[in-house]
Amino acid sequence: MPVFEEILSRIQSDLSDSLLKSELYRGETTLYIKKQDIVSVCKKLKSDFGFNFLADVLGTDRFTDDDRFEVIYHLRNLTEAWFLRLVVLVDEKDLAVDTVSSVWKTANWEEREVFDMYGIKFNHHPDLRRMYMPQDFEYYPLRKEFPLIGIEGSIPLPAKE
Amino acid sequence: MPTEKQPKSTDELLRLLEDEHTFVTLEGGDALDTEMVINMGPSHPATHGVLRIVLKMNGETITQAIPELGYLHRAMEKLAENKSYHEFMPYTDRLDYMMPYSNNVALCLAVEKAAGITVPERAQVIRTIACELARISSHLLWLGSMVMDTGALTLFLHTFREREKIYDIFDLLTGARFTVSHSRIGGLASDISPEAISALKSFIKQFPAQVQSWEKLLNRNKIFLQRTVGIGYIDAEMATDMGLSGPNLRASGVKWDLRKKVPYLKYDSVQFDVPTSTDGDSYARYYMRILEMYESVSIIEQLLDRIPEGPVRADYAKQVYPWKSEVYHTMEGLIHDFMLTDWGVCPEKGQVYHAIESSKGELGFFIQSDGTGHPWRLKIRSPSFVNLQSLPYLLEGSQMADTVVIIGSLDPVMGEADK
Questions:
Q1: B320 within domain boundaries
Q2: A149/B contact by beta carbon, under 8 A
Q3: Global pTM?
Q4: Is residue A155 part of a domain?
Q5: Do residues B133 and B166 both lie within one domain?
Q6: Is A133 on the interface with B (CB under 8 A)?
Q7: Over the stretch A78-105, which tens digit does the pLDDT of each residue have?
Q8: Is A51 left (phi over 0), alpha (psi -120 to 50) or beta?
Q9: Chain A: nearest CA to B33, how far in angstroms?
Q10: What are the tens digits of pLDDT across the range B389-406?
């Protein structure tokens, strides 16, 4: 059974063109990927390195001026039990990432959730609708500027008798 | 194989309908011939909560299914960002309300990983036992309701009788029957009592015989087999691609269990099997869970005899709550208690993900810490949410009556799927 460290160095050399930086924290490897290369990187990781299971896709709001949002992918290789985290930085001026739902079908709903909560659009997504909030909801609730108490009138209540 | 036939007359139609293996299709201006859209849920007894599915029907066959979520969305992740890690604990009870204990443990493990806290052996063993007990409790509820979905109401009472015993054990172990909130960051709220151990022992002694009697009732039951065998088939590749996890994935033939492959708690010190099947249908998903209950009993059995002596909470007052006796009688204890309540556990800046094998699948907590007592971002990877995504694939092409069986076989909990 190949050791993950060897595989990781192979991944890093194979993806060196798309890789911005890599981190190791608490035994978990994080690779920062260039935004335009995410689909090709995912395809390569799935076909060449057996990352056949997409555990999760999530967004985060860093609340910075540049590269405000992150889209994070948790990948698993079910035969070797490897775990890898990919991070794509998304700037507020260009809120769109290519969808990876063509690589793993799981990404469909996961990306819808990110879109619902942060307003990050996924190009070529088969069904980009809001996941939890009402379809006509105007705000993106997990952004840091959205107040915990909600915004008055954002969800209309039935009129009083 | 069913054959498709078009009746020429009413007499022929009635005759054809008597044969269960024939599909009857009608042409012309008949109401049954046109496609029909049925709205199922969000308030429907068989959707296990508030799941809404819009079904497009061609006669009895489902041509399209669109699940709609969000009717139980309580903004768990937004709340987590505004609470300290300890304050968020009771919210996790309400995620997958079938097995609250595991949710507490999953959160604690993630926070402990982020903060680098080592949990004493005794606490880890008790957590493992309680997690397996919670798994049995969750599978019992699932078994009762899934068999009820196929039309058999009696078994629900049998499984709930056993579940009641588990509630009693949780009461002895944690002080609460349902929403336990017993785990603490760095250990447990209280130690296991000798009464709880003896209650556990007497429970696991009689429990496997109960499951065997249910197996006798179901395994070769003709009606149950007709409702489940071959219904909602998904193969291994598709199941992996769809992100199914837990018993649903193992029923399709993928031998993946986080307890074995990425061991946490004390799972690497016990012997247990990971049951798999290659059938991939509702019956396989049923049978995997039955077998898992036996394995859980065996894990509890092995661990009960070797609970090590020692503390159940780490002795590190900067990040782990001190015991109340210390808080009330020492100045340092009081200060630390105040500090932890006010500031909370402050993990270093960084991001971690920790997943456990819950009864539904991979339950993961992703924590992004900015060094303060509140998580900057906390994401819950809920297995029910991802498992539900395969519903359109499983439903399309199957019969209307199988909808509830397929939903039941996936074992979704909307509290977790909607977060």
A1: no
A2: no
A3: 0.87
A4: no
A5: yes
A6: yes
A7: 888 889 999 999 998 889 999 998 999 8
A8: beta
A9: 29
A10: 999 999 888 888 888 889
